Amino acid sequence: MRSLRHFLLLLFLVVVLVQACSTDEAPSAPPPRRENIVDGLDSLTGLIAQGDYRLVKGNCLACHSAKLITQNRATREGWLDMIHWMQETQGLPDLGKNEGPIVDYLATYYAPEETGRRPPLDSVEWYILSAAGGQSSAER
Amino acid sequence: MRSLRHFLLLLFLVVVLVQACSTDEAPSAPPPRRENIVDGLDSLTGLIAQGDYRLVKGNCLACHSAKLITQNRATREGWLDMIHWMQETQGLPDLGKNEGPIVDYLATYYAPEETGRRPPLDSVEWYILSAAGGQSSAER
Amino acid sequence: MPYLNRRRFLTVAGLPVVFAARLPAGIGLLGLETEDPLPGKHPDLTILNDRPVNAETPPHLLDQRITGADRLFVRNNGIAPASPPADPSAWELRIAGEAVPEPVVFTLAELKQRFEHHTYQLTLECGGNGRKEFSPPASGNQWSTGAVGCPEWTGVRLRDVLEAANFDRKKAVYVGYYGRDTHLSGDPDKVVISRGVPIAKALEDETLIAWNMNGQPLPHLNGYPLRLLASGYPASVSGKWLSEIAVRDRVHDGEKMGGASYRVPCKPVAPGAEVDDEDMCIIEEMPVKSLLTSPKTGAILSDTKTLPIAGHAWCGSGAVSKVDYSIDFGSTWQACALTKPANRYAWQHFSAQIEFPQEGYYEIWARATDDQGRAQPMVLPNWNPRGYLNNACHRIAIKVV
Amino acid sequence: MPYLNRRRFLTVAGLPVVFAARLPAGIGLLGLETEDPLPGKHPDLTILNDRPVNAETPPHLLDQRITGADRLFVRNNGIAPASPPADPSAWELRIAGEAVPEPVVFTLAELKQRFEHHTYQLTLECGGNGRKEFSPPASGNQWSTGAVGCPEWTGVRLRDVLEAANFDRKKAVYVGYYGRDTHLSGDPDKVVISRGVPIAKALEDETLIAWNMNGQPLPHLNGYPLRLLASGYPASVSGKWLSEIAVRDRVHDGEKMGGASYRVPCKPVAPGAEVDDEDMCIIEEMPVKSLLTSPKTGAILSDTKTLPIAGHAWCGSGAVSKVDYSIDFGSTWQACALTKPANRYAWQHFSAQIEFPQEGYYEIWARATDDQGRAQPMVLPNWNPRGYLNNACHRIAIKVV
């Protein structure tokens, strides 16, 4: 089993190298989405592109979207609880030596914020509403 | 005026040096409160003992207590506004080249927190209250 | 070895992957797909998660009295069936469980033919709607206000079907459902979610096995071709892609009936408290709530100080008895006009005309009160570990200039 | 060169001081003093600032119906006179201003002898009480809930004294005060604070020139030997160490009458907005408010589910008509018993007996409503740049175990 996995990994790397050198892409096809960083975020996943974010990309996104990470906030303990819950009930394997760095990344960049019992109204997009009629009248 | 100030500063430093070497303190007197750091705070003022906190000690505490700093939170712009208000109305002199580092310190260590329209109840000190009678009955 | 297409290779290539080589067939690294994750849905829905698909509806898109199929939120726990059934009329529903003498199977065609059809407008709200406001934060999809909707549903009564299966009224305690979605891990033996309701709720007139939403077949993401509907409870009791109903002789113990899932502390706890599983209780009726759907937040009034407002109000049992609004952060409240519900569990519509006293920034807060006198709180109600049941008042921002 | 004692040297020595050499005589680096900054005050007052002295009272210490002198908060803008006057009876009060034919001076002895004495229980509350909760934060002393108290004050009516000075009723618009505190900079020519009230407020029965608190001379930090009292307005209109009253023919323009001081936006603004001075209006009547003073927050009930609560409620004009409490974050409210005020502007006392339905964590919220139907909001009311007028409900935490 172990040697099979090693073989597959080797095969995988070979294929990657071969593919990386191939130029069989039609010139008119849209370019593949490459990993890059826009406004500090990994453009493919929206993860904050600092620290060990690539470990998170490599270990967490096979089963769920990065959005499940980026929309959440938790302490180190909270993130660890979620990982253990995924391991116990959702089939996530042991993360081995990557667990520490992954939890560090999550606890650092997706830490809880204090919002109190009623957060402020934020990110309001202002627009002009005419007295003549709201946008809703057509819909009701 | 300028040379008088230089003379006073020189005199001041001389006195400091003389005092620093003197041993005329009675042995039974309580030790003078020395500057040191406890739990990350400057023990004399309660300022966060990082960055240029000594500039703040040296420039801000002649007119008001450090508590006016440590209980407040503001953005860089907000702290600068307060400094300018003190200069315009309260007699604070120009801080010269220290202004930048002082404002940096304040904006870094005393930055605003988001608490929403109703902050949580925090730092509750729990105690047992007996049905026999609250602590208030004696006072009313 | 699983097939990996070129795009997946390129994106996997740069990563310190320990897991990629073990990817089961058909599972890629997420966030890298370009297909529309919300087929049939309004483009302005907010996607919270694309695997599993979770998307909510901005308040102003819920202004319709009957929620359009393209606007009903999506809260999936697993992966929807890959493709719709070739022949939906052959879709099978099995009735089983300890309180059924022997399992019975009905096809969708049989259900339609054999039982009386009923149409109700039924509110569906995710138990975690409003989770985003929890502090300390609660894990899970960070729903804002839009995991709710109220379409018209057509189907047969669960009661009629259970009676046809000759269920044992004395033995029956609970019903539990099973559906044909797939676990995120890809493991076909894992149940995604299997929840249910107490038998009394199951036997209510409005508890339906439904195939139509607003006169059309259910949207694929909302359970096509068949789903359960038990309005007033968290939407997770209303199973999608419905394949089995178990009539249980005990409280159903399916996936996501235990632990912290859809359960809250039996006794109120301090924010951030750790709560043992044994101290958690299943959520039943949802609390009273309302949503301001018109105008959209952020309206600037430049030529008037008068503003008509409108929205909906609902609760998990009984009815909403009044809705008030405030423009002074709850110091004073004014009554809104309020309609009666189309039927039990349909949301009600409120409206009012606000006259602003002067120019300035205002927040309009809406507050519904149920027929037991319980009002929406202005602040987060009881904290719970998973962030359920936040029915705090909805509010929008307005400027009069 | 100013005298510097050894302790000051040692603490100054290590600093990058650019300012120390210019220190005026008597001014040291603060936070380094060991003397009691609050002579005569209860040791459990919370010191917000020691130069100028600002200290507030924890809620449970305000449980007395008549606030003890040792428990009244201290909000000084400058430095209190260094030492009490040798002969307080010789303390002089000057009545001047455009609406007085010519200045008149009364000694404290003359005031006591010539005018009728009056005793009222008057609430005094800092306009910035509650500032701590503002978000975005507002600069200034971060008062929690304790910049309020309600002692009994004895003195003469300002009206009687102004009439004796033959003030011009037609010309008079406002009164402004001056006191004998010293500016923080040490500059004797700088006025620390000089505020006041519209003439109608000045002429009310309860507007006093007072020398006694609870039958004893005023505490030094609260204005000994003489101060103004105009209850219902921010406490900053009630000048301490009172030396002059100016009867003005215009709105008083003394120190801290303009800019953002004790003023709020004339029209409501969004949180964090920048507001021009010309768009700010002077605060007059304070809003309705209440404080839960018993039990102290944090009570754990182990042998009972019954809890008596008590506190006070007040407002800037009229009276408080009811106080309610909630243990479910405002979903439902129960009425408290409420006393009538001892006199206008005295706070009223509320009480109730709570029966908790089960064990758990509770917050008890108190909400007062004035006789105009305006209630305390559960959340921060209108935001303003300096953080005034936060009358959001007070609440305490309780555990029933």
TrEMBL record, chains A, B:
Query: Does the UniProt entry include the keyword Signal?
Result: yes
- PROSITE patterns from the UniProt entry: PROKAR_LIPOPROTEIN (PS51257)
- Could you list this entry's UniProt keywords, alphabetically sorted: Signal
List, alphabetically, the InterPro entries matched.
Cyt_c-like_dom_sf
- MF terms (GO), sorted A to Z: electron transfer activity; heme binding
Extent of the signal sequence: 1-20
Say which domain of life the source belongs to: Bacteria
Note whether Endoplasmic reticulum occurs among the keywords. Answer: no
Q: Which Gene3D superfamilies match?
A: Cytochrome c-like domain
Protein name in UniProt: Cytochrome c domain-containing protein
TrEMBL record, chains C, D:
- Output the InterPro entries linked to this UniProt entry: Ig_E-set, MoCF_OxRdtse_dimer, Mopterin_OxRdtase_euk, OxRdtase_Mopterin-bd_dom, OxRdtase_Mopterin-bd_sf
Q: Which cofactor does it need?
A: Mo-molybdopterin
Which SUPFAM superfamilies does the record associate with it?
Answer: E set domains (SSF81296), Oxidoreductase molybdopterin-binding domain (SSF56524)
Q: Biological process GO terms, please? A: sulfur compound metabolic process
Domain Oxidoreductase molybdopterin-binding stretches? 84-254
- Say if the entry is tagged with keyword rRNA-binding: no
Question: GO molecular function terms here?
Answer: heme binding; molybdenum ion binding; molybdopterin cofactor binding; sulfite oxidase activity
Domain Moybdenum cofactor oxidoreductase dimerisation, by residue range, is: 282-400
Q: Which UniProt keywords apply?
A: Metal-binding, Molybdenum, Oxidoreductase
Q: Does the keyword Metal-binding apply?
A: yes
| Superkingdom in the source lineage | Bacteria
Name it: DMSO/TMAO reductase YedYZ molybdopterin-dependent catalytic subunit
